[in-house]
Amino acid sequence: MIERLNGTINVLVPTGALGVGIRSEDVEAGLAAGAHAIACDAGSTDSGPAYLATGRSKYSRDAIKSDLTTLMLAQARSGLPLLIGTCGTSGCDLALEWTRDIALEIASENGLTPRIALLYSEQSPASMADKAKAGMVSPLQPMLHADPEIFNKCDRIVALMGPEPYIAALESGADIVLGGRTTDTAVLAAVPLMRGAGAGPAWHAAKIAECGGLCTLNTREGGVMMRVGHDAFEIEPLNNANSCTPHTVSAHMLYENSNPFQLIEPGGILDVTDTRYVAIDDRVVQVTGSRFLTQPYTMKLEGAASVAYQTIMLVGIQDRSVLNELDRFLSQMSQVLHQRVNDAMGAKAGKFDISLRAYGANAVSGLPLPESSPPPLEVGLLFVATATTQELATQIAKTCNPAFFHMPLNKDTPLPSYAFPFSPAEIERGEVYEFKLNHVVRVEHPTELVRIKYIEVKELQNA
User: Fold this and answer.
1) Is residue 143 in some structural domain?
2) CB count, 10 Å around CB of 393?
3) Which of 7, 26, 331, 394 lies most in the core, judged by the most C-beta atoms within 10 Å?
């Protein structure tokens, strides 16, 4: 029988992302089970570049405040450190300070007086261009170069922190650490590394626990506890009705990772080639054999910017003749719409794009339907005009309006009217954003690109 680990450093991970929901009973269960810290992630690039370029949060203020209230109250009762990584979705300065303001509001409303550390990781385009000129920046696929000019095209740039800034903040007496852009694992690995756990187990446990309950059988049933020792770690659900298995735990190495045996982090590579996953009982999995291979310290750079504007329109189509020859219909409509814009607007339209996406057929994949596929019962046809200004995108949509709503499959048939759900038909989407960077920057010290600021909430409340 496999024995449980002793002398572990235990991190309560209540959720995979701040703002998606945290149950106070799960947090209380984790505290009762011997947690030494509370930590979770709050950001990602999963939902595209807009959140970095604008500094806006993907989740609502109310959702963030609800989860953060639960965690801050638990921190105050327990005295354990609370670490939040990649605040406000993107971890840029604006998003971090937005989260800071929520935390200060919670503290004021609940009479809390924590010492809060803010870890800023946004970089100026000029400073990163200088790093590139000095040969300190390297491209990652699919980027081909690190031309300094590319940084000047970014609205915002962030560097992904490792655990060291969190450790520095905790060593300076912080009760709560709100981090800018951070690797998902670093915020969870920080306390185990700080307290002497093995690097391999700490990084591996953090990778498994980064999405909370996603490494369990019932992925929506609360978070997990990671118990990290010197040579091994354990993962167990916070909810007694939930379970971890060797399969659910080992499978998470595949999450957002192209290599199931290695994970690149600032300062090294997690290698799980020789790892073993063993069920202790029907709830807990113990993991051995994880290694962390030290490498020169680099930080990944993310940059995003506004590149264009869009206006959309939508129609629903049930016409059987159209749906039976959908590929021909879409190809024909695309030609007609482009020609219409060229004829009506000419050079005034500037550089533009028109995209047609048939939801109900192949809008998600964008691939041609197999010949054996039956015609869809209906499609929602989305029209997307992309142009250099909002006014041009909307004028392009208005110019295309008649053909988009009334174009028949064959010229010798009466004009149809497809079903449109909104009036006016055109919907201005606003700015369109694009990731500009996928690079790493070499640094001499893990905190070189990080600015740490402390807030004494008690002093603010007494001022």
Assistant:
1) no
2) 27
3) 26
Same domain, 407 and 455: no
Domain that holds residue 373: 307-435
Instruction: Give the residue from 449, 451, 435 showing the smallest Cα distance to 154.
Output: 435
pLDDT digits (tens, 9 = 90+) for 11-27: 999 999 999 999 999 99
Mean pLDDT throughout 412-425? 92
- Mean pLDDT over 404-433 rounds to 94
Tell whether 216 and 283 lie within a shared domain. yes
pLDDT digits (tens, 9 = 90+) for 152-193: 999 999 999 999 999 999 999 999 999 999 999 999 999 999
pLDDT at 306: 97
pLDDT of residue 23: 94
Residues 457 and 341 in one domain: no
**Which amino acid belongs to residue 415?**
L
Same domain? For 266 and 231 the reply is yes
CB 75 within 8 A of CB 24: no
Does any domain span residue 41?
yes
- Please report which helix (H) or strand (E) contains residue 49, including its range: none
| pLDDT of amino acid 28 | 96
Residues 285 and 324 in one domain: no
pTM: 0.94
Cα separation, 89 vs 58, in Å, equals: 6
**Smallest Cα–Cα separation from 80: which of 27, 23, 131?**
27
Distance separating alpha carbons of residues 179 and 239, to the nearest angstrom: 27
Q: Is the domain of 313 the same as that of 235? A: no
In angstroms, the CA 383 to CA 426 distance is: 9
> Has residue 223 got a pLDDT over 70?
yes
DSSP letters for 212-273: GGGGSSSTTS--EEEEE-SSEEEEEESSTT----HHHHHHGGGTT-S-TTEEEETTEEEE-T
Q: How many helices (H) and strands (E) does the chain have?
A: 14, 21
The DSSP string of 339-358 is HHHHHHHGGGG-S-EEEEEE
| Nearest by Cα to 212 from 234, 236, 245, 233 | 236
CATH for 405: 3.30.70.600
pLDDT at 373 exceeding the cut of 90:
no
Q: Are residues 240 and 346 in the same domain?
A: no
Domain count of the chain?
A: 2
- Give the per-residue pLDDT at 277: 97
Which pLDDT score, from 0 to 100, does residue 87 have?
A: 98
CA distance 183 to 287: 22
Token output for 217? 């059988």
Q: What is the pLDDT of residue 460?
A: 75
Answer yes or no: are the C-beta atoms of 12 and 27 closer than 8 Å.
Answer: yes
Instruction: Judge whether 275 lies within some domain.
Output: yes
- Residue at 106: amino acid letter: I
Burial (0-12, 13-18, 19+ Cβ within 10 Å), 90: buried
